[in-house]
Amino acid sequence: MSYLPGAKIYVKLNDAWQQAEVGSASGGKVTTTNGDTVAEKDCCSYSAVAAQGLDDMINLDVLHSASILHNLQTRFDADKIYTYVGSILLSVNPFKPISIFGDDQIDTYAKADVMAIKDGTLKPHIFAVAKDSFEQMLRDQKSQSVIISGESGAGKTEATKYVLKYLTAVSSKAGKKGAAAGAELSPVEKMIIQSSPILEAFGNAKTVRNNNSSRFGKYFEIQFSSVGEITGGVITDYLLEKSRVVCPAENERGYHIFYLLCKGASPEERAKYKIENLTDFHYTNLSGCFDVEGVDEVEEYKAVQQAFADCKMTNLEVDAVKRILAGILHLGNAKFESAEDDDPCNLSADSAASIKAVADLLDFSESQLSNSLTQRTMSTGGRGSVYKIKLKKKEAEAARDALAKHMYLTLFSWIVKKVSDNMQAEKPPAFSIGVLDIFGFEVMPVNSFEQLCINFANEKLHQQFIHYVFALEMEEYDKEKLGITIDYEDNKDCVELIEKKGTGILGILQEQCQLGARGSDAEFLNNTIQTYNKHRYFIVEKRSRTEFSISHYANPVKYETEGFLEKNRDSVNDDIRSLMDSTSMPEIKSIIHKKEDAAAGAAAGARGRKRKVATVANKFKDSLQTLVTVINSTTPHYVRCLKSTEKKMPGIFDGANMNRQLGYSGVLETIKVRLAGYAVRMDYSVFVRRFAILVGKVEGEGKAAASEILTKSKIDVADTKVVALGITKVFLKREALLLQLEKAREQFLLSSVLVIQRYWRREYARRKFQKLKEEAKRKAEEEARRREEEERKKKEEAEAAARLQQCDQQETAGEDEGRERSATEQNNALNSVMSKARTDGVQCTFLNIKDRVMVLGYTPMATNHRNKVDKESPGISMEPVMIKGWLAKEGSKGFTTGRFNNWNKRFFVMKKDRIVYYKDESLKDKKGDFQLETSSSVTEIPETYHKNLPTGVGNHFFQVNIRGRSTKLACDHETEKEKWMDGISTAILQLKSGTEKVKTGSDFSVHMPDRSILTSSVKTSNAKDVFLKVATTVSIQKGIQFFSLVKAYTTPDRLDFYNVFSERDNVADLGPYRLAFYRVISLKGKDDLSDPKLLMVEYSQTVRANLMFFEYEEKDAIELAALQLKVKEGTISSVTHTRGFLSENLHEYMPDSQLMRYGDNTEVTNQWEADILNRAADIESSKKSVNECMEEYIKKSQENVLYGCTFFEVSMIREEQDYAYILGVNSTGLHVIDRKTRALVVSFPYVSIMRWSRSSKKFNFTTQGENHWTMLTKQGEEINKFMGIYVRFLLDNKD
Question: What are the backbone angles phi and psi of residue 403, rounded to the nearest 5°?
């Protein structure tokens, strides 16, 4: 290629690409205007697009290393450190803080849709990769992985932390802990974040290339629920560089934790762990490097301390960790002396203090510690003798360092496992996102066994990358017959050179380790050369007797084999192992004690072969293979980290260094694949189903249909630079094309929705107008029916005195639908459960003469007062709707009859906005009712649903919708259907228009939950109006749907019961009852106790229920009484609240269940008083506020099975007598209480109740095993109503 003078080009100078201008070109040489002369092969054409700094380098006009570097430098200079290469993210370490990682950035990326990233609205970012992995996990229902790679100092650790930060933030929102950025993290999420300071402190160190270099690899698997909430995490570590503990290189440091401990320890810690200055310890003083520029290591130490606590490590465990760290430092100060180098050695005199410190810290015997460092126990094997040999000075130093390395390695492994175990999910996760942060490719001045393992790991991961990016891509193109060929180099042979079983380099190393003392580094090298001297990736170093080279995918690396076997064995001698086992501190022993695989040894012996020696290489190879298998089972996302300079300084873009990293990052190959291939591929069926709406009717299917859609969308299917049609899939060259189709589809759907809405509104208005025409003529009939219903209710109340006799008559006449247990069977069942209940109480005289005042210490909800109201405005008289007749009704899934999906003929009566249905026209046996509301509606059932409707119940169907619940009805004639639909529609309109005739104003005294009384004037006696007036007056804002007006009454045995008013009931005629405002529905765990009003209501009603109905163990009753006393008194005084304070009003605090048993026993009641006062004093000293005591009282009460019950008077036949009981109904089930003793007799969870029915005199239900129960009560309708509410709640909230 010839270059014209004046043209812009890139030239390669000193291994770096630079921009230049051509001065002249001839003879295969190019001379620039700067005077540099280079060969044409070292010149590349200039990219004007790269000067713009594209977000995605797939779109570069000219593709080669020079244009890529130019684009990266343009962005780097503008502090844009992230760049896409297709789906791969390149991250360039700027070596300075950049403000693009805050909560606001997380929020921006979390709220953005995927297309915002695809079309460039949002710039490249590590958060975008994390977002893509998280959303793809939920969308595809498949686990993901984020593979972060690069050299030491390229920023892998920081990238990992940012991925974890994003995932925990969006998980907090998915778990509904807060939609705003910075939402409170769950304990598991906090552990995931706080694991980073611990892992960095124990696994990172300062090196010449990186101030925070990870000296181990880790795969952090974050576990998620099906809705994207983090449930746990698992950490797997790989190959810690343990040699750094004892011999850090010059200008480098050991692991951070040693320096943090020495700098940040408190005076008490320094004394306890015998901590000195860094210069006083051999291991930390060896390299002469003590500080990290710009890092406050005192604060870092505090952060690690906090992280320990957040990761649920106990104080004893943290103490053991610090003892081991200090012990390692003191162990390094052990020195040895001998006359000659080859003579046996002893510990020097000045080592005594260090040895004593190690022994004290780790609970070792000083003599055993000294002996394990200076001598070795040898055995001749079999029954031969055991003897000890003294070690030479170098051997003793090696033993000392081996002990230090081994203790640190076991400590690190224990910490990783401990943190991992503490954060692991309790249940199997639905999905996971794994984040891999592993050591990058290394070429050191001297490369040993550790570098071989590190570079082998990079070869293995590069092979996985090639397989994912290239091999799978080409396999699909071949399968679809697209005729695309891309040349790429597979490193499979290099991987097999290292790992091939038996004959690979690691296999030959394992064989030498198996030989024990007969194996040697020299023999290992000789065997390797003999096996692979002609292998294309193996290089024989002819000038060296201890080295060989491997031509890795990145660079050739020369390895020094001296010490290979010793490093691979990873073992300590028996003396050191016995020493570590000798400590009596359980926490230390659990950390440093290494269990041998006895089972493996026994199995090998049983098969008559030598046990396989456990080695570092084998363990690492197995764990690496497991890692690759895990990654292959996920959808991977790649982040390639690049180091802008080796100087660790900001603002320097070292072209030669960056070019070298690009050479083995796979970026160029990725771009080639993306340019030659297709970024988007979809099955024809999926493509047609999604985009056929853009062109209307599509002829044919599969490839033909896809081709038609593309053609009509003005996309040339013949242009393979844009689109290709394979055997089963359509391929799009760029994601922008998919974005174009998606936007067109979205616009089409939007316009279609508007058309549908327009037509529906017209139809709805037509139906509404048609039904309004006939509403007036129906009102008179409805009013008559309403009056008839009121008369019926009055008659039923008058018959309450003859309840038992009438029940017998009704039972004989067969009025109840469900089967009833015979008197003998029910008697036996009651005797069975009563025999297990506590029924030894008696009605004590103490309780008979007492009455509870329950004056509360806080401001009452209402005082006796009269509220002013506006002058009454005249209403408009309108005739109420009244209709009656036979309809067929679909069963309500157990809420009325207990049977599922059955249809029954019922006689319906509609009066105004209330519909009641009976068994027959006698109107004696009520089966249920509907209460219409302003949000209710009545509609015809669509014809498409008619095929699912039964035959024989009627030919004309319609449905009534109340609060989201639909009830299907049927009648025989079209005129009947129109009559009912018009009537119901009219009643709803009356509710909306508010034209109901009102009465003159009335005064009402309403009893509040805390026994205060609200006196108010309301313009109508309608229950709904009175309720709204009371709710407004007392300012109940949350949970108002759970409150109601009730008719409350107190029985002679001092029990409070109530009946709930319906919305349209008249509250003027109360008779012997009192009008009250109570919370009647209580759902455990759904209360907002932060609302003072609701807290007061819940506390007041809980106290009343506890004292009257609940049964507690004595210690629990005392605790509740003390809390109640604190609430009532406000402050517990040591002068006032002493003996005698509660003697006259103990019944205000102790429940009836206790008083009935022991209320007349003076000794017991005196002890109760003392216990309550003492416990109240303890509560006072704890500084708990009154509101906190209320909350604690409620939460403790919630542990009782009766919490939240509405109670009803019932009776049952037992031993041919009518026995009185109390029936409690709450969110957990039905509960039968002995009225005489207040003892809980039996509970029936809703899951055990198969069906139930009721009449105005009875309530029947059948439990599992066909056990039938009949309860005599006039509150059957009320019981049924509450059961229906709770069962519906359980069904709506089941998992």
Answer: -65, -45
Per the residue annotation, which of 93, 168, 171, 213 is the catalytic one?
213
Q: Beta strand pairing status for 431-437 and 144-150?
A: parallel
Distance between CA atoms of residues 902 and 898, nearest Å: 10
Which pLDDT tens digit goes with each residue over 181-234? 445 788 999 999 999 999 999 999 998 888 998 889 999 999 999 999 999 999
SS (H, E, C) 722-753: CEEECCCEEEECCHHHHHHHHHHHHHHHHHHH
Catalytic residue status for 601: no
In the set 32, 67, 152, 1044, the catalytic residue is: 152
Can you say which residues are annotated as belonging to the binding site?
Answer: 150-157
Given the DSSP bridges, would you call strands 547-551 and 538-540 parallel, antiparallel or unpaired?
antiparallel
Radius of gyration of the chain (CA): 42
Phi and psi angles of residue 84, each rounded to the nearest 5 degrees, phi first? -90, 150
Instruction: State residue 263's pLDDT score.
Output: 95
Closest by CA to 129, choosing from 738, 636, 739, 742, is 636
- Which of 557, 501, 1284, 544 lies closest to 927, judged by CA? 1284
**What single letter denotes the amino acid at residue 693?**
I
SS3 state of residue 866: strand
CA distances from 874 to 638, 996, 1004, 1155 (A): 75, 10, 21, 56
Q: Report the alpha-carbon distance of residue 419 to residue 423 in Å, rounded.
A: 6
d(CA 783, CA 778) in angstroms, rounded, equals 9
- HEC secondary structure over 805-832: HHHHHHHHHCCCCCCCCCHHHHHHHHHH
Q: Closest by alpha carbon to 399, among 245, 593, 281, 573?
A: 573
- For residue 377, the model assigns a pLDDT of 86
Residue 448 annotated in active site: no
Query: Is 157 annotated as catalytic?
Result: yes
Question: Active site residue: 40, 276, 337, 442, which one?
Answer: 442
* Token pair in block for residue 430: 């639905």
pLDDT in the model for residue 599: 40
Q: Is 213 a catalytic residue?
A: yes
What are the CA-CA distances from residue 1110 to residues 576, 782, 1107, 1113, 1150 (Å)? Answer: 64, 45, 7, 10, 10
> Is 1001 designated active site?
no
Cβ neighbors of 997 (< 8 A, separation 6 or more) are 875, 876, 877, 878
Q: What is the pLDDT of residues 746-779, one digit of tens each?
A: 888 888 888 899 999 998 888 888 888 888 778 8
Active site (annotated) includes residue 1199: no
Cβ neighbour number for residue 1266 with a 10 Å cutoff: 9
Q: Please state the residue numbers annotated as binding site for ATP.
A: 150-157
Which tokens is 83 given?
Answer: 């760049």
Is position 53 annotated as part of the catalytic site? no
Task: Tell me the pTM.
Answer: 0.59
Q: What percent of the chain has pLDDT over 90?
A: 34
Residue of 214, 447, 615, 1197 with catalytic role: 214
Catalytic residue among 440, 841, 898, 1276: 440
- CA atoms of 1127 and 459, how far apart (whole Å): 70
Element (H, E) at 1258: strand 1258-1263
Q: What is the DSSP letter of 524?
A: H
Let me know if 561 is a catalytic residue. Answer: no
The residue annotated as part of the active site, out of 67, 93, 157, 1227, is: 157
Cα 463 from Cα 459, distance rounded (Å): 6
Taking the C-alpha atoms of residue 1200 and residue 1194, their distance in angstroms, rounded to an integer, is: 10
- In the sheet that 926-931 helps form, which strands lie side by side, from edge to edge? 926-931, 914-918, 903-911, 882-890, 965-971, 956-962, 937-940
